[in-house]
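Entry type: protein chain
Record version: 2
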Amino acid sequence: MAKYSVTQSAVTQLLADVHADKIAIPELQRPFVWDSVKVRDLMDSLYKGYPVGYLITWHSIGAALKGGQVAGFQQILIDGQQRITALRAAVAGLPVVNKKYAKIRIVIAFNPVTEEFATVTPVIRKDPAWIPDISELFNAASTFGFIKHYLLANPEVDEAAVEGSISRLMGIKNAQIGIISLADDLDVETVSEIFIRINSKGVPLSNADFAMSKIATYGDRGRNIRKLIDYFCHLAVAPHVYDDIKENDHEFAGSPFLQSIAWLRHDSEDLYDPTYGDVIRVAGLVGFTRGKAASIVSELSGRDPDTRKVDEARIPIAYDRLEAALLQIVSKYHFENFLMIIKSAGFIRPGMIGSKNALNFTYALYLRLREDKAMSEGERKRIVRRWFVMSMLTSRHSGSFETTWEQDMRRIATAGAAAYLKQIEESELSDAFWSVRLPSNLETTSTVSPYFQTFLASQVASGARGFLSKSITVAAMHQHSGDIHHIVPKDYLQKNGFADRADYNQVANYALTETSINISISNKPPMVYMAEIDQQLEDGTLQLGEITSRDDLEKNLTENAIPATIAELVAGSYPEFLRHRRHLMAETIHHYYDTL
């Protein structure tokens, strides 16, 4: 069975199909990323008869059209949005949406004598040799009258040459553009693979892109649901664009959705800034218990997951479920409470979280647990905290995570979240994990390792102080000024046979330290700087930090999982120091996990 068909369409017919909603272009309501030079070059290529690449569309079943009708199929443009938008701007004279979500014109001028295209400027507008806006020619009632007016303004030009170049310019309206139409029964993975193979740039199109395109086909409601996702993600990163959206996107501002994300205009939190792909994934889990973005496309197409047949009666129900899930996701109360739970586990900065998927699933879990009215808020927070940290420690949401997500959600629904989490803990976080596997995982030079970051999170959660600090906490240094310090200085190790960075940059040789303490230690070996601390304990004269009590020093070393024998450490015992500290770090993480 053919997976696609190839046709040709004239520019004017293509634009008419877009206007009639036969071809859905969801990108029209997103900022236009081409500059005017690219629009000019596109016009020049069409004028000279150069190929401008294929558009790629995908048939969509049951799409809502203008006026309330339902199409037998609608084509979703999945590649070529920028070219279509450029044509609408230059040929039809329609505005584009800029970065401030304001509608602006991109105006292309043409010189019939030199046959040049240019972005219009004030100088060009005053020069009679130029047609300052080619869209006026394309939309003129009479080409003959247009040419006559031009010749009157430029009596010295070669009339035949001008008539020829304007005629060729008008020919752009009938220029043929190739369209590759993918069959409607292809699954998203196949569509994506075809796209990658035929796209000359090899730009991968994600399943989330397909889902966003599919969402937008459901009339005004679909467009605004898509915008809800898009604007939520945009505002989370750039709150200042709220006013631009409100002032310039009247359709969305008139919907009930704008108010649901208005709180983001005052948001300054960056711990979790989801992309539209992240939101699609969370919505799939919350609304459909589905882990794949492709599954959402199937649901919104009315495809029964059991029979694989399309039932259009399922489509409005699917959009209801999607909308309900999204309104939970973008809720200020839900979003901020979820972030407070994650922060209470010690993960207070984005750099501490290497897995966005762990956040995505845990947020979906939090929202699903809110449906259990019998569960106390305290129990809900405990489960969410432990699940997130368990995910970080076990890399549960890496690899084929989508299948795991669906299995986890189903088992949580049947066994209960607490019981299922306990089952995972008994399997994945056994005594062997804490005593063997975790210390082994800490044998790394990567400071972004989830194991090292979980250790730092455990210090934040417990209120631990920085290495040799009397009062400055690890949490405070995360948020302000602090250094990752070599406990055994790099210079000392290099001079004593440990020249490989894989040796001196082990995370077990790192501790978060005040900048001033780091500078004071410099390249002194532990025996030297700990001797200075001993002298400080004896006479109270501050040389290194502010600790003046031996009990306080011992407590500080414990907080930082540093062996008490550090003052006796020499280069020859460095490997044993690393092994010992890795076990102490693992014990610290184990205790922390038990207290979550």
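Comment: Residues 428 and 482 are 34 Å apart (CA to CA).
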